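Page 42, continued from yesterday. The earlier attempt failed because a stray header line got pasted into the input along with the sequence. Redoing it now with the clean sequence only.
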Amino acid sequence: MKKILAFSGSNNPKSINQQLLIAAVNKIDEHTNIHLIQLSDYIVPIYSPVIEEKGIPKTIKELFQLFTKADGFMIASPEHNGLPSSFFKNIIDWLSRIDQRFFGDKPVVLMSTSPGVTGGASHLQVLEKLLPIWGGNLSGVYSLGDFNNKFDVNNSLILDASENAKLDKEVKTLMQ
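This time it went through. Structure tokens are written below.
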């Protein structure tokens, strides 16, 4: 049985990326162990070498242990000004201080959504380039634009059939 660690790179409790992640998680078969976490539960200071001298925060060590136990990852990341959120970047900075290749050469599906037409695609390109440095093997990429018209928030599903099929395809790549 595969163990998939799923999370959003957002600290917004009303995150549309978290909603997209839930829709993707719902597509996983029952033979897969999904561990859906809230990164916002892992509260850490903004990374600094001065703060690091006092030691790696306990919550980051706990998160790193979850990474080591996972067989793959599903990440839905919000785009802020064409880049990953500073919240997500800070988590990455801390994890990389334990091990630069914290994804452990495991498969990763990257996702994003936004109310705009590109669905956060710009920052996904940035993450795609950086993922190998962090030990992630890109398994798939999915971006949903026009979230407010293409997503049913009450039922956690994509309304547009072609977009739904695209997400199905990307989720299946993680299961191979």
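Notes: Helices lie at 16-25, 49-52, 58-69, 86-98, 121-130, 147-150, 161-175.
Reminder to self: strip header lines before submitting.
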